[in-house]
Amino acid sequence: MAVRGQGAALPARVAWVLALWLGLGCFLSCAGQMRTCAPKDLEQLVTYLTTTQCQLIEASAANFLANEDSAKQLTTALLKSTTIEGFSAVRCQLNLAFLDALANALASGLRLQQLDLSHNRLPPAAVIRLAQAMRRAQSVEVLNLMNAGIDDDVLAQVGADLGHGPLRDLNLARNAISEHGIEALAQPLRERKLLQKLDLSMNPLGDRGVVSIAVLISEVKSLRHLSLAAVQSEVIGARALAATLRQGKSQLQVLIFSKNKQLGVVGGEVFQSMLVANPTIKYLDLSMNALGTAGVQAVLRGVGPSRTLQQLLLAVNDAGDGILPEFVSNIIAHPTLEALDLSYNLISEQGAMNLEKVLVAATSASRMGTLRKLYVRRNAADHATLQRVCDFPRTTHTALLSTTKKHRSLAREGKQSSSQSGTCDASSADCETPTSATEAEATSHGKRHYTATEHRRSAFENLERNLIIVLALARLERLADAFYAADITTLAGFEAEWRQDGGSSRVCIQRLLDVQVSVAESDKLDVMMRDKAPGLILAAQLAARNIPIPDLKENQN
């Protein structure tokens, strides 16, 4: 039972003044006398509701509704309360008498703003009466009917009443609602346009139901949070939803589309196109959709252009080491993404070690973006390796904050010493303008960029623009055979240098950056590498971002 309230004890400011005078011991003693407003039985709850001993704001009826008399007693007390705003009766096996009494209380003036009747098998007649009473009361803003036994027939009768109230948060998860029930609910919600949060998870909506939801969110601009987990949707539903979001017809910020059927590569590409164009999504959950390595790669490619996404969940999608290049090119330096979940996938021990090396290299080159939480638990790698990868962004961020504070302190000290030193002759060699550590680092950072030749810059831009795929993780033989089969004359010297050097990633990239490739050649190489080089573009992406190339190895399993 969870109850919040305000007791009749001394105000906090008075208690604080007393504590200053009487000491910590007296303060603790006084604080211990404050009423907690946690009733232990029905009688005490009724007392709190009907008197000023404790001004209840939220009350729970758990374990207090043993019979019809107690139900009537409680609803009468609720009606008398002048402060109650929220009421919860979760898993109470609610009887029809209590539900009728609650409906009567709402119709008679009970001004509840939050009502939670989840995990109760509610009789259809009681649900209809409650919805009618809520429409009359015009006060309930948050309604939780999760796992309440609601089906299409019930929703068809109560949809109009729910839609015409001031609802902003509606939870209908874990019921028996199909596309027919959604159609009955959608029209009233379109007319009211107040809804901000809608949870329809674990309902058999199917593709048609999700298509109806896609139309709904394009018309209800107030909706910010949508949960469609485990709604038995396939690619058709995902495509309709993504199309609405891609076209900017919705202001949705949170989308949960996990635990649906096998979306695969096509599903990943659908959400890739959505992320590229959508200007509002901040939280996206695509866990347990069987996207596979290629599907997750597609989603990560969509993250790169996004400038709003903050959290992305891709757990349990059968993704392997092939996602690492897309992680480098789209995640490492991302300006808004803070959390990425890749748990319960197929990243190998070598893949996890390479991921750790990439994180270290990016950090040392000051190329890390906003990523603070990286979850890779329960992959195919050793637990200790995965734990180091998980801890790295968080510890790096902490160290960065500490370094920034130190830099600011040094900058302040530099300004103080400058003001105290007076003036000096600008022509003198001993006269130097104080420079903070932060400015010095920025200057050094700029020099690293300046030393890169324009030729290499334009060369890599040409390669990336024409989709040249470089195999930096593959074995020497595979890469050499691939270039030989491609028969591209402008890269003829590259194969010889690769063989002579023994497959060094550094020499590979430095040589490649000096090569100019035509559009026709790049298309040919692109097709060839997609077939023979699943490791893809990792080292090239590192080099393009001035990140030191670590000693990466391919998984030999």
TrEMBL record:
<feature type="region of interest" description="Disordered">
    <location>
        <begin position="403"/>
        <end position="451"/>
    </location>
</feature>
<dbReference type="GO" id="GO:0005829">
    <property type="term" value="C:cytosol"/>
</dbReference>
<dbReference type="Pfam" id="PF13516">
    <property type="entry name" value="LRR_6"/>
</dbReference>
<dbReference type="GO" id="GO:0005096">
    <property type="term" value="F:GTPase activator activity"/>
</dbReference>
<dbReference type="InterPro" id="IPR027038">
    <property type="entry name" value="RanGap"/>
</dbReference>
<keyword id="KW-0343">GTPase activation</keyword>
<dbReference type="InterPro" id="IPR032675">
    <property type="entry name" value="LRR_dom_sf"/>
</dbReference>
<keyword id="KW-0433">Leucine-rich repeat</keyword>
<feature type="compositionally biased region" description="Polar residues">
    <location>
        <begin position="416"/>
        <end position="426"/>
    </location>
</feature>
<keyword id="KW-0732">Signal</keyword>
<dbReference type="GO" id="GO:0031267">
    <property type="term" value="F:small GTPase binding"/>
</dbReference>
<feature type="compositionally biased region" description="Low complexity">
    <location>
        <begin position="432"/>
        <end position="443"/>
    </location>
</feature>
<keyword id="KW-0677">Repeat</keyword>
<dbReference type="InterPro" id="IPR001611">
    <property type="entry name" value="Leu-rich_rpt"/>
</dbReference>
<protein>
    <submittedName>
        <fullName>Uncharacterized protein</fullName>
    </submittedName>
</protein>
<dbReference type="GO" id="GO:0005634">
    <property type="term" value="C:nucleus"/>
</dbReference>
<feature type="signal peptide">
    <location>
        <begin position="1"/>
        <end position="31"/>
    </location>
</feature>
<dbReference type="GO" id="GO:0048471">
    <property type="term" value="C:perinuclear region of cytoplasm"/>
</dbReference>
<dbReference type="GO" id="GO:0051168">
    <property type="term" value="P:nuclear export"/>
</dbReference>
